[in-house]
């Protein structure tokens, strides 16, 4: 069964802290994505990666960075968390090729106080 | 810039009702449109549509795409409380790999 896992379901951090959100997929997918989801705004793409050590900016990369050192793992980093980064963060993965369906993880609800 | 607009943003119905959710889009080099259902956690894939006028169906859910008018609808007949969820529409461009642009989502609530 297809599986995408995220390191935490709920996370509370203070303003200015460095935050790591981790995502792991067990499907040998080439593509991995990080989104944030806010009410009324839908899912917005932060960063994505087509391969190990490769990354591309999405629509809202400011304030975030990513790391992909292994194919199965994609990390989202908030260098200095701010209150406007309070959100639900969703990770997804997909195959490169004819199947463009993305498989999502359960999400991490991050609160920055 | 790609744009996906869903309507309504929220909808409350009674069990047994039929609902229609709308998704309109403006995309350069359109390739496909996808529908997802999101209950409490991860969005799950429902349909992918690439051709106009061909209905995709799964049980009580069906969807169709109109590439001329740039929209899609998702129909749910005989709704059940388990259909309560956020329904997300997303579009993909040609040569964009798996990158998707999502709409705001429609929050559907089905009351018993």
- CATH superfamily grouping of chain A: Immunoglobulins
Low-confidence stretches of chain A: none
- Amino- and carboxy-terminal Cα gap of chain B: 41 Å
CATH architecture of chain A: Sandwich
- The oligomeric status of these chains comes to heterodimer
Q: Output the number of helix runs of chain B.
A: 0
Number of domains of chain A: 1
- Relative helix content of chain A: under 10%
CATH superfamily of chain B: Immunoglobulins
By CATH, the topology of chain A is Immunoglobulin-like
Largest sheet report of chain B: 6 strands, mixed
Low-confidence stretches of chain B: none
Mean pLDDT of chain A: 93
Structural classification of chain A:
mainly beta
Describe this structure in words.
- The complex is a heterodimer of chains A (113) and B (112).
- Chain A has 113 residues and is mostly beta strands.
- Chain A is built from no helices and 11 strands.
- Chain A has one domain: Sandwich (Immunoglobulin-like).
- In chain A, the strands form 2 sheets. In chain A, strands 2, 4, 5, 6, 9, 10 and 11 form a 7-stranded mixed β-sheet that branches. A 4-stranded antiparallel β-sheet of chain A has the order 1-3-8-7, with no helix packed on it.
- The N and C termini of chain B lie far apart (41 Å).
- Chain B has one domain: Immunoglobulins (Immunoglobulin-like), CATH 2.60.40.
- Chain B has no helices and 11 strands.
- Chain B is an all-beta fold.
- At the A-B interface, strand 4, strand 5 and strand 10 of A face strand 4, strand 5, strand 9 and strand 10 of B.
